[in-house]
Here is the input.
Amino acid sequence: MANYRKMAAPTPDPESQPFWDAATQGKFLVRKCNGCGKVHWYPRTICPFCASDETEWVDGKGTGTIYTYTVMRRAKEPYVVAYVELDEGPKMLTNIVECDVDSVEIGQQVELVWVPTTEDGPPVPCFKPA
Amino acid sequence: MSINGAAYIVGAFEHPTRFAPDKSTAQLHGEVAVGAIRDAGLSKDDIDGLFVSGDAPGGLQSMGNYLNLKLRHVDNVDIGGVSPIVQVAHAAEAIKLGKCNVALITLAGRPRAEEIKTGTTPRVRHASAPDVQWEFPYSVPTAVAYAIAAKRHMYEYGTTSEQLAWIKVAASHHAQHNPNAMLKDVVTVEDVVNSPMVSDPLHRLDCCVISDGGGAIIVARPEIAKSLKRPKVKLLGAGETTKHQEGGMFDITYSGAVRSGPTAFAEARVTQGDIKYVSIYDSFTITVLMQLEDLGFCEKGKGGAFVSDGNLISGVGKLPFNTDGGGLCNNHPTNRGGITKIIEAVRQLRGEAHPKVQVKNCDLALAHGTGGQLGVRHGSGTIIMERE
Ligand SMILES: [Zn+2]
Here is the structure.
């Protein structure tokens, strides 16, 4: 079991609740638009590209590459914040975990890992080197 | 319809304090308001438009009450620290439409006295904002949100830490002449790159100061400006926008300046080469570099070379910037640097900057800012002003 930074629980709302319910089951959902066919991030009911409300939850691949990152050094333990470009297209703000923080690189392939949160919150999607 | 020539900046005041444990936040707003009113040569009852933002305790109602103003126009646009720059434009619009004659813009606060760890601790402004749940667990304090943009800029364009450091070096050269500046010591590129890493690639000296204080601006219609004794600073053009994650399909190496800049230049009917002085929001060194590129002062991706070798130092380089020392060395009151950007541009246009940093024949200046988080979502505003 990896030793994770204490991560704050997300605060689900009616629009996002299905995502966090699935997360509790270890399932990574993304939101896809049936109007334009594109996947966006973060998930919302109105498509940010074409404004269609014909959007639905679909299974995400949980794979991608690091678009950019930083190692935050002014913390008890340095941690990595990154945008991961999902293989579905959009870039997602996240943390890179289970890695040597000094070996992280732009363009690196990564895969999804669920990280527990405080206060019995749902786990949050993070990534680790593939 | 244009605001070109519709209004003048007639009053400007920067609070001398950088640490104010003995003052209330409302008091700081009041003191800067009075400072700007006196600077203009007006009286309190001339004010009929009030513009405040998220830093004003109690907002428009409490501030209007505290100062006991008789208002007929109010505005509380909040797109982060850039807000006062946008409010100058909004004041000109209101004046042009006859909604007010004399607009007061105030900004003040005391994060230093309140010991707020501005750059390194995540802050939640609106708990119900839709993006919070997708960000807060990942712990994205302000320094991180700018560092991720800097990292990608370096990857795509080969920008270096030494090039970013030149921005801080230039600011420090100016701050040595400002007796109120928080950091008055001249620093070198080596000092910056050898300072402790905060969030790669941003070092401690790539970050702005945390200071208490504030500032105020007064915008008035042309007839009133002409009746006053101060040098005349005319507003020529303005632009504003927001930039964000675009559903996940965004380029992090660009800022909102790509939209607010061209709008302002077109309205002002001037070009980059005409501008004698720039105030550029300097929350971090990377903020300056990206904004200068996006405003068109150099080719995209060439900002690193452009800012190097003292090119931003007054009397040395081609584009003097932030001659008060900027947010990097002088003042970033209440974590919002918009008002001080306007104030130093006004000093330059009036010929009232410190003699060691005053730009010769400074007849055209630009002030631009980025509010919020460069690499996540931010507001952007640009104004162009002329000495008449
Ligand atoms: Zn769509």
Q: What stands out?
A: The first strand of chain A starts at residue 29 and ends at 33. Chain A has a mean pLDDT of 95. The pocket of zinc ion is lined by residues A 33, 35-36, 38, 47, 49-50, 52 (CB under 6 Å).
